[in-house]
Fold each of these.
Amino acid sequence: MSANPEHPSDSPDARRVIALEKEKKALQQELAKISRERIEYLQNVSHQLVAPLHAIKWHIENLASGRVGVERGKKVLRSIYSQSTIAVHLAKNFALMSNLDADHKLSSLREPLEEVELFRLLINLADDFQPLGWDRELQISVKNGTPFEAAPPVLAIKPLISQVFSNVIENAVKYSQRGYEIIIDGAHHPRSNVVSVTVQNRGILLKAEDTNKIFERGFRTEEAKSQYPAGTGFGLYIAKRIVELHEGAISATPTEFGAIFEVVLPVRALEGKARQRGPKDNSSYR
Ligand SMILES: Nc1ncnc2c1ncn2[C@@H]1O[C@H](COP(=O)(O)OP(=O)(O)OP(=O)(O)O)[C@@H](O)[C@H]1O
Ligand SMILES: [Mg+2]
């Protein structure tokens, strides 16, 4: 079919130009959306980080004033410790977020695989988060004397796996009702050769229809938003991404009084899939 000279916009060239213009406009809109999201993300990051830093500054000013007695001073120091734990935890999540969005394979991550004893790791994390728990009269307990203690180590990237459990434990503290116990337990399942870890708390209720949504980036339940306005909704998304990189699974189940989170990690499935830690590697991360 030949172009109509009376209607230049009917020519194939003109149609191509129109199509290109349309495509350009769509791309510009997409770019503007990404840029808006990036700004929102950065605002969120700084907002989240500023809160604990402010609290630390305020506590230090209080101590420096010399008007605080010994007993009160101990309490203030404990709060400084808790708030620093939150700030470090948030900063790690934000750093991971950009990394995980860029990398999709375990082999492309810089950290090597190593044998991780989950029982030990969880004892250390429970210790780290306990001061945060004290602020809310919560006890964080890792069950000992159970099969968890005897579970074999799993091959994993330790700082990443540590962040998974940090995110789950931090939630358990944040969403618990004052005065209750957070119970961490685990087991080795020889048939599938996986280690499972559960973290159970009593607090805000989790609706059955939200159990999958809470792993989506940015999703927070209405209850969490109204009771605990600070939060990005990134924690469980990051946890899920990391667990899946390790070929494991993470899930949440509502209970009568709160929720139970389960992380399942294969013991040896990752052999040969990423660099393994050599004798010269030295990690201070627990
Ligand atoms: N232990 C829990 N009990 C009940 N609901 C939970 C629990 N842990 C998480 N949730 C729900 O899952 C949502 C997503 O959790 P996630 O850790 O991703 O984000 P967040 O805690 O809201 O924010 P951030 O982790 O960035 O501070 C929470 O907002 C809350 O609604
Ligand atoms: Mg969280």
Amino acid sequence: MFCFGCRYDLRSIAASRCPECGRAFDPADARTYSRAVRAEAPRWVLALGLVAAAWPLVTAATFLVTTLAARISLGHCPRPYLDDPRSINSAVVGVLAHAAIVAMIAMLPAALVALCVVAYLGALRRWRPAALVLLVGLAAWAGFVLLNRYDPLRCVDWLFD
Ligand SMILES: [Zn+2]
């Protein structure tokens, strides 16, 4: 026996009102309460939300890996404007450079997916997982912005020159 409004467990409540949200119910009338336990979000929804939220870090990782592969292929750090990713004679660098660009294009849809998961978890009143997805997303975007700003390996400069 659970509250329709907030899924509060009403089984041990003597009054006819939910102590959590005030919604009235009648233990004798099955139409006034829910039999379903507090709604749980499927695990894959949370997993999807976390991956989508962390996507900017995946994108940053593809930038760094591409730059390291180019470094190995060239024998020195790839220089912006001088070592074009397309002119490096390495299939691996070519594939990685494409993956980096696809990952970056996917950042916006990934952010939308993460926000949808946050809204969905919020609708289920699962505040903690919702806050977790939101925090991971903010941290990942902050990390991505910092990489673009400071770019220690000059990988952003080089990939997008
Ligand atoms: Zn309630």
Amino acid sequence: MSNDYEGCRLFIAPDGRSGFALQAKGNLAGFVWDFFVSHQENERKAYDLLSLAIEQGGNKLATPDHPLLTNFFERFGFQAVSMLKGNEGNAVTMILLDDAYQKLKPRIHEFLQQMDTRNEVVTSNALKDACASCGQAPQTPLAANGGDGYRADGYQCSRCGFIRIHGCLTLGPPKPA
Ligand SMILES: [Zn+2]
């Protein structure tokens, strides 16, 4: 582990495949860095981990400017506040509006419940490309390339709006000058 995560609390899944760093100290406290969800995880993982990050005090993040990512975070009540132009794409800084999060939480739980119910009945491979929440198929994959090795992919369901997402979902802490 490098000094990059100075002042951070690390949340890593027991299998080491997914997790994030939460800035606990300093003027960037509340930032969720290097939020990563392995492709081997199910559709819930990104939602479960981001919920955990928020419950632990996470309320800011920076992510590549791509609708798959920004829409996903908006589902939780994050709002874009600034844009940083980069050579390989722009990065958006987002902050959590707590009121919005409290209002959106029931909707998120509804999606997750639909997903759990569906996963119990889905056994055929053909159906696995379908929306994890409502079963609409097929879904159009989207990829968000943030440059510098950052990449996320998934889909946004055209029927119910559910977002499945994997990969690198937020950027890392700024490099010391
Ligand atoms: Zn759907």
